[in-house]
Amino acid sequence: MPGGGAMTELVIQGALSGLLIGGVYGLIALGLNLVFGTMRVVNFAQGTLLMVAMFMSYWLTAKTGLHPYLTPLLTLPALFGLGYLIQLWLVSPLLAREKAREPMSVLLMTLGLSLVLENSALMAFSADYKTVQVGQTNAVWFIGDYIISIARFWGLLAMASTVALLWAFLTRTDLGRAIRAVGQDRQVARLLGIDDRVIYNFAFGISTAIMGIAAAALLPFYYTHPAVGTTFLLKAFVIVVLGGLGSMPGAALGGLAVGVIEGVVGIFTEAAMAQIVLFAVFVTMLFFRPAGLLGVERK
Amino acid sequence: MRDEERRVALGLAVAAAIALAFLPALIRTLLADHAYWNQIYVWVLFFAMCATAWNIIGGYARQYSFGHAAFLGIGAYVSTLLYLNLGVSPWIGMLAGGIAAALAGAIISYPCFRLRGAFFSLATIAFAEMLRVWGELTDRLFGILVNGARGLVIPPVGSDFWAFQFTEKASYAYVAYTLLLITLTIAWAVKRSRLGYYLAAIGDDEEAVQSLGVDTARIKLIALLISAFLTAVAGTFYAQLVLFITPTRAISLDLSVQMVIMAVMGGLGTVFGPLLGAIILVPVGELTRAALGGSTLQGAHLIVYGVILMLVVRFAPKGIEAFVAGAFRRLIAAIADRLYGPAKAQDDVVNAPIIQLPEASSSLGLQAVAGGAVPLVLADVTKRFGGAVGVKGVSLTVQPGEVVGLIGPNGSGKTTIFNLVTGYLESQSGSIAFAGRPIAGLPPHRINRLGIARTFQIVRPFTSLTVAENVMVAAFPRCTTAAAARTEALRCLAFVGLSHRVDTIADGLSTGERKRLELARALATRPRLLLMDEVMGGLDQRSLPAMIDLVQRIRAEGISLLIIEHKLKVITSVTDRIVMLHLGEKIREGAACEVVSDPLVIDIYVGGAAAVR
Amino acid sequence: MLNRRSVLLSSAALAGTAFTRQLAHANQEIRVGVLSPMTGPAARFGAIQQSTLNLAVEDVNNAGGIKSLRGGTIKLFFGDTRGEADMGVTETERLITREKVHALIGAFQSGVGLPSSAVAERYQIPWLNFGTVNKITERGFKYIFRPHANDTLKAGALIGAVIGLAASRGGVKTGVILSENTEWGKSVADKQKGFLEKAGVEIKLVEHYPYAAPDLTSMIVKARALRPDVVVANSYLGDALLITRLMGEYKMKPTVYAAGGGGHLQPDFVKGAGPLAEGVICATIWDAALGRSQPWIKEINDRHVAKTGVPITEDAGCYYQCFQVLVDALERTNELDPKKIRDAIAATDIKDPKHKAMFVPCERLHFDENGQNPTATAMAVQIQQGKLRLIYPQTVAEPDAKPLWPYPQSA
């Protein structure tokens, strides 16, 4: 390993690369966060929904030649609808039945869903890795001696815009405010005339649609294959806890943090060690500050 | 269940157990590819073992661990390493592996059990994944070859009992069967013991259990130790069956999830549920894979698992054990009728053994301690929530034998005071003492042991237990056997007038009955001070006198009372003294009739019950 | 719970099917199990292995089957290892106990083959191995045979090619080795390191990564900072693509980019890596270019291309050889007994270069007491204009394939 200044350079490059992929991580965590923040349920199928989104974008690109970055125009509505229906048909009945604050049955239901989705994709598309080649695929920018992958940069930008849009939506629109209200106190929101079930449907739909953005960002530089969901899901959990449940900026920052940790640790040791470090950080956060860096402590 | 039915059930169970013991031999003689079918049978037994072991913590106490495969891996690796390096027989290695897994469980339990619900599950996943990744990375541990992702191969030595290897699949089936029987017996014993009651209650409402004097962390830990030990034993069996272990496979999320699915499908919290789940899901998976597997339709069996899981969660959340048990019970009843003649009418009515229950008005026999003991003293207590103030500088005292009322509008801090006294919240300043010793900062179960009990504003019965079982949970800390706990429970229930509902599932009680159940539970902890949070809430006018009478009788037992109440009639007729809170501060204190006619009090309560007499 | 009635019913039904299977055996069907990654990240390898073997079986059966076994036909039973060791183990067991195969060929990934072949040894079913890790034939097993080269030979060929080329072109001084972390990657990296260091090259980094890893950026960033002359990658397909693309993205400019085999030899690698694949030097045991000196090899490859659109790959070629060794042995047994088949394989002795089992050529195809063919050899190819061209050793190098040096992406 090089020493001194060269090492610093390495670490900075590692951190930079990590920061860029962190953008996509953050997007996935955003989706998870939206659902958890509103309904206090963990959507175990978030990763597989990402996989579904990736396959959608992949097929659009492969069959019609549409640029991956344009596929969300078509996939976003479809994914929103998918999420809406999942909530309506699968999750709602459970929420109606359970009185607990955080119903575990939803976790099991979404787990079952993810098994079905992932293995259906495996059957339909086989386990090959599928990739696309577009202009952005291997393109890089040089900033001094440092290399910025253009495709990943767009991913980071996508996350930043999504966070901004989502923030605006949640704070400026009625629907958005209703979502936040339901997230804070279901009962009171109902008293105010908000139909929490409809809100949940929307939240789930938006959360799934966000996966469409992440998928489009990933396509130029990542594999599409049925098991891609699990990898990202575990990371998304870590991010959500790190950044704070219910906090959108937290999810975004958490994503970047996780990316940077991965990138830097990978420089010092093997890539696999980064996983262990991440999980260790995860557990530590759960233990000391379950509300996360930016989360709000609840009574 | 009457005695004859019990005898039939036992007989059937023993007969089935013996018959199944011969199943491998039967398969071997009748089927040409017996090795294949016995292999499936072995997997059924193996997964049943894992799922049953998982159930002890995951199903009984609803602590959904998704990392149990870590214990499997620990068991497999410990016994294998001992065998490969020191020639220790895997039978002994199995025990060593179990202990190692229990140790691991103890280590992670402290951080994990502080978390609830989904957080707990995520933490278990994190720990298991950490172990797996670390295992894949590590080639040597203190010089011992662990071989990372490449895995360890156990050299086949043919049939050697001491080396825990057999050439015949049937032999493995016998071993697995025996291990499963042991596991089931342990699971059954746990369920029937005090530990089982605690776990079931924890699964329903952990915080409420703490208020009954039970150290829930310790209970969960014990269950986890047992569960980890048994899972690791299964892990050793796995290693000896496959003769090849890698972290990727042995500690996989896949395996953990399968254990959970089988237990959920079969019936969480039941003894035989996980076995049922395994019996159905393993052959389904195996046959799906065989029929449709190979190059295409890979993973078809996982789709089936996923669909089954979704259906079960949606339509049969208690699992299929309920149906099977029901059918089984009918079968037993039918057989018993045949053998012993039909049940006589009154046999069915009273399910519990007949004991002479005391009259509803008789005493609890709590041996009231006269004078000089147990005042509750709060001095200048403040509690903030972020920016908001819960209570500020509140001082109040409850003398022995006193009944003090705590009133105030919503949000004035009454329940906060309760939570502070019973240890659910910590104050930022001030002191709380009981019987002369400071109790601020103690956990709820410790405080209960010191003699303070409480009820909750929104009742929290253990909905999956019967009324009697609810109270037994509270009585257990002071009793040695289940029978003694039940007697004590029945006595408390008689005291509150719920004798006619003792074997009803708590879920089916009316609001008034639930309130009384909560009181019975609290009383079973033999408190010297009882905090009652709006026990009259939600009761109609006709039920009030009986409840007021109950409160008087509790007082007559020598128990001091601190009562939160809105109903004026109750306040004035029951309490000696009233303390009024408003916006977190104490604003009035004095005799009941004084306080309620105080203009300030009326003012604050404008429109409330106090204004109108 | 299983009750007596259901067990008796199902066992009666099964006994029936078992009986009918006994009848089928009267036609001397030779059942051969094949372990391949049919799904998973290495699925492409499995697919070509399957199509190649199907071709081979067709040939044998159409020519009248195995004559010494009364014209018995061969039937293949594929077990999907998914590229995972424990799946290989369970599939091997299934093929043996359920499908009752008489012999096995497998398993491509050495990490899978190592434990799976142990199962075959346990059940005493002969196993013809493709997978280069030395250890496979160093366990004192009696039922495991490998007709082709092991890791030492492959590493020797690769480094020999690299050093040979370097000698007249300015030499190489430093190197890094990036290897997947299962049995094969670890074993072959070791051997390559040894050979390189013996040739005076300083190895600055040896890193192992999980072959299904989604992101290898840190590893490439690290490797790039070291500015090595030689980069050796031992990868399967997905990771080969990932590494190559990252190297392109981060403008890594080694003098030579070498590969231990596996992924870099796949047609999908060339397709996926595009211009970045040009100039990669790979070790190989078999290559279609061998058809130039042996037209019958070319003919078989052409037939495969006609049928599937892709040429036979290194691994599929070795599977083909294993199969032909088995056929040769079957012709020397007159009883369908795995033990006898094993003995016949052990007695294999082939020198005729036109014998089908010489699909992977060697001097004299026979097996030592450990089951390894001591005359097996390895070669090196280079990707030139999207095709694999033999460049080492001189005896088999294609004359019109001038080696590219340095790795063009570094130009």
3D architecture notes:
The complex is a heterotrimer of chains A (299), B (613) and C (411). Chain A has 299 residues and is mainly α. In chain A, 74% of the residues lie in helices and 3% in strands. Chain A is built from eleven helices and two strands. The longest helix of chain A has 36 residues, at 4-39. Chain B has three domains: 3-330, ABC transporter involved in vitamin B12 uptake, BtuC; 376-451 and 529-541 and 564-613, Rossmann fold (3-Layer(aba) Sandwich), CATH 3.40.50; 454-526, no CATH class. Chain B has 24 helices and 14 strands. The longest helix of chain B has 27 residues, at 216-242. The radius of gyration of chain B is 29 Å and the shape is elongated. Chain B starts with a helix and ends in a 9-residue tail after the last helix. Chain C folds into two domains: 23-150 and 291-366, Rossmann fold; 152-289 and 379-410, 3-Layer(aba) Sandwich (Rossmann fold), CATH 3.40.50. Chain C has twelve helices and twelve strands. Chain C has helices at 4-25, 43-62, 85-97, 110-123, 151-167, 183-198, 217-225, 237-249, 267-273, 295-308, 314-330, 338-346; strands at 30-36, 74-80, 103-107, 127-130, 144-145, 174-180, 202-209, 230-235, 256-262, 281-284, 379-384, 387-392. In chain C, the strands form two sheets. Chain C has a seven-stranded mixed beta sheet, with helices on both faces. In chain C, helix 8 links the parallel strand 8 and strand 9. In chain C, helix 3 packs parallel to helix 4 (110-123), helix 8 (237-249) runs parallel beside helix 9 and helix 11 (314-330) packs across helix 12 (338-346). The longest helix of chain C is centred in the first third of the chain and has 22 residues, at 4-25. The model of chain C is unreliable at 19-26 (pLDDT under 50). Chains A and B meet through helix 3, helix 4, helix 9 and helix 11 of A and helix 6, helix 11 and helix 13 of B.
Question: How many separate domains make up the residues of chain A?
Answer: 1
Number of helices of chain C: 12
- Low-confidence parts of chain C lasting 5 or more residues at pLDDT below 50? 19-26
Please give the oligomerization state of what you see: heterotrimer
Radius of gyration of chain A: 19 Å
Class derived from helix and strand content of chain C: alpha/beta
How does CATH name the architecture of the largest domain in chain C?
Answer: 3-Layer(aba) Sandwich
Specify the CATH homologous superfamily of the largest domain in chain C: Response regulator
Q: Please outline the major beta sheet of chain C.
A: 7 strands, mixed
CATH topology of chain A: ABC transporter involved in vitamin B12 uptake, BtuC
Helix content of chain A: over 70%
Apparent shape of chain A: globular
The rounded Rg of chain C comes to 22 Å
Largest interface: A-B, 46 and 44 residues
**Which geometry of chain C do the CA atoms define?**
globular
Strand content of chain A: under 5%
